[in-house]
Amino acid sequence: MIYIGKYISLEKVLLIVFVFLGAILVWPFYMSVLLAAITAYVMFPLVDTLRKLFKSYHFALVISITVIAIPIVLLLAYSINDISPLVYEISGLSREINNVLVPVEGFLSQYGLSNFAVNVQTAVTGLSEYMKSQMLSFMLTIPMLVLNITIYLFSTYYFLKDGNGAIKFFKKYINTLEYREKRMIQSIMTGLKNSFDVLFLSYITISVIVTIVAWIGFNIIGVPYPAALALLAGIFGFLPLLGIWVVYTGIAIYEFLHGDVTGALLVIGFGVVFLNIIPDLFIRPFLGSKAGKVHPMTIIIGFFGGPLVFGVNGFLIGPIVLVIAETVLVSYMKFHIDSNKDH
């Protein structure tokens, strides 16, 4: 073995260099690859069931990827097709709100509150322009989005196809290490598995709970099309980029514009308390801590701190980082406690 200096071998230097270069190449698509890994982890049982049913692992993989791809492609096509009319509708809604505020401004001016109406008009116009600019920006990112979706689907396929083999190969490598290194890497892998369980339960289970609770609440309040809107709330709850608030805020605006101020306030209150606060601060930490074998505060800080540090991607990265961190830290401390007991 060739050494550079006294302790560092040329082999390790080359390994670090090529791993670093590989990480740079993967970085633009790291979120797509991470989502693919989580998807594959969740779908392994389905693929195994289909394999037994059709007696073909390759056919089971094709069916599974097709099940994932169809809704993604349809949603993307629908979004691209409807983005221009939606921009026009936002402009129209802004004009309608301003038209409503014109007579109100005269009434408010009698009581010295004309500035309030002007501020509302300015805010509505600004919000409309912001939403239109965001939609136009979305249109410009469509080529990169399509590339990321392609990477995601191919990565999911190969994780499902070769994931078990790669894990077995990696475990063989771990068995060649010294006990301390082996224990550390095993704790990291355990933390990664636990974090995937946390994400699966936190998003899938919470979405189901939110759908049921929303359906009950919307029926009690008297919201039109309660079943469809509850299902929409559940879907949006599964998408961290959007969130459930988009649904109940939209319903509240609809109720307000149709003169039902009480209904709008009830929808907002119900949505904030029963669709956001209780699921996010109580149910999610409870389920996540059980699945990830970590403290509930780890789940709370992971879900809320992740987006503040990593942006939108932090909804996934935050819980993964903190679950792994706690798992490794606890394993490390237990190792030293056990070592001291032996002495």
Explain the layout of strands and helices.
Blueprint lengths: L2 E2 L3 E2 H17 L3 H25 L2 H53 L4 H27 L1 H33 L4 H43 L4 H12 L7 H13 L3 H32 L3 H15 L3 H29 L1
Architecture overview:
This protein has helices at residues 10-26, 30-54, 57-109, 114-140, 142-174, 179-221, 226-237, 245-257, 261-292, 296-310, 314-342; strands at 3-4, 8-9. It is mainly alpha-helical. The protein folds into 2 domains: 34-166, no CATH class; 177-343. A two-stranded antiparallel ribbon has the order 1-2. A hairpin with a 3-residue loop joins strand 1 and strand 2 (8-9). Helix 3 (57-109) crosses helix 5 (142-174) and helix 10 packs across helix 11 (314-342). The longest helix is centred in the first third of the chain and has 53 residues, at 57-109. It is globular. The two termini are 37 Å apart.
Structural class: mainly alpha
What is the tally of beta strands?
A: 2
Q: Report the radius of gyration as a whole number of Å.
A: 26 Å
Shape: globular
Percent range for β-strand residues: under 5%
Order of helix and strand elements from N to C terminus: EEHHHHHHHHHHH
**What about the largest sheet?**
2 strands, antiparallel
- Average pLDDT reading: 78
Helix content: over 70%
Spatial sequence of strands, sheet with the most strands? 1-2
